[in-house]
Amino acid sequence: MNDFKMTFKDGFEEFKVYCITKNLSKDTIKHHENVIKTVFKFINPNMSIEDITRKTVNKFILDCKENLTIKDVTLNTYVRSLRTILYYFMNMGYIEKFNINAPKFDRQIIPTYSDEDLKKLLKKPNMKKCDFIEYRNYMICQFFMSVGCRTRTLINIKIKDLDFDNNVVYLNVTKNRKPLIIPLSNTLRKELKEYLRIRKGKEEDYLFCSMYGEQITRTRLFNSMQDYNRKREVNQSGLHRFRHTFAKKWILNGGSALKLKEILGHSNLEMVTNYVNMFTEDLQKDFDEFNPLEQFNKHTNMNLNMKRK
């Protein structure tokens, strides 16, 4: 008779193997590994899987609230990751099935660059005086504001992914692992052609490379762009801020939410809806000035007042 009981720790190792066989991204697996470190602080990793219940999860949530200095959105992330792991156990028949609801959290205002910031960041450097890194960072700002991609996507773009014949760029490394084809704007197309004349390189080389032509890491790019912003007297920094700014500008310019969803590579409209909700205050600005009904009534009232006089 086999009296072996799988521990939570053993179960998580099995879950990781499952993730690998499902071909989930390294970032996704790494995320679960990071979360489980916090989980194991409050749930004994050596406890038997079959002893995990709804009470175990609820106690974990309370322990996090009482012992960790974290935001509600972080706790939500922890619980969603734990839920994914435990639902795997349930599907395998290791524990009884029960629903797990992640704690709610207040939506935070999405940080974006102001128009004044963009004027500074998108101003072309003096090509006779600037070095390659400054020029490259300027081009990265141009690319982010024209394509709206994530940082991981950007650092994996190769020269061969630019298709000037069809006026598109192929984004092969994305969060949901679905390649995207994004049109090149006229401005970006011209800028990229000039950039390639200076950058040179082969088809297999990375488009935005280090000073030595190598692929740039996310951390190194973050630090480099932070320095670029500081030198241009832009106090705010953050690579993902460009993506938020792209989305905001698209919405304020009257762009389609469905098209934005496709460009950003979201699987549904939930995140795009969040963008719209976050920027409603900006949408209200000048609304009356350009609103057809308001303008019609304004002119009608003006004509009536003139007749009375």
UniProtKB/TrEMBL annotation:
Gene3D superfamilies: 1.10.150.130, Intergrase catalytic core. CDD domains: DNA_BRE_C. Residues 108-288 form the Tyr recombinase domain. The keyword DNA-binding applies. One of its GO terms (molecular function) is DNA binding. GO terms for biological process: DNA integration; DNA recombination. Keywords: DNA recombination, DNA-binding. InterPro entries: CB, DNA_brk_join_enz, Integrase-like_cat_sf, Integrase_catalytic, Integrase_recombinase_N, SAM-like_dom, Tyrosine_recombinase_XerCD. Residues 6-90 form the Core-binding (CB) domain. Pfam families: Phage_int_SAM_5, Phage_integrase. Belongs to the 'phage' integrase family. PANTHER family: INTEGRASE_RECOMBINASE PROTEIN MJ0367-RELATED (PTHR30349:SF41), PHAGE INTEGRASE-RELATED (PTHR30349). This is Tyrosine-type recombinase/integrase. It comes from Clostridium beijerinckii (Clostridium MP). The lineage of its organism: Bacteria, Bacillati, Bacillota, Clostridia, Eubacteriales.
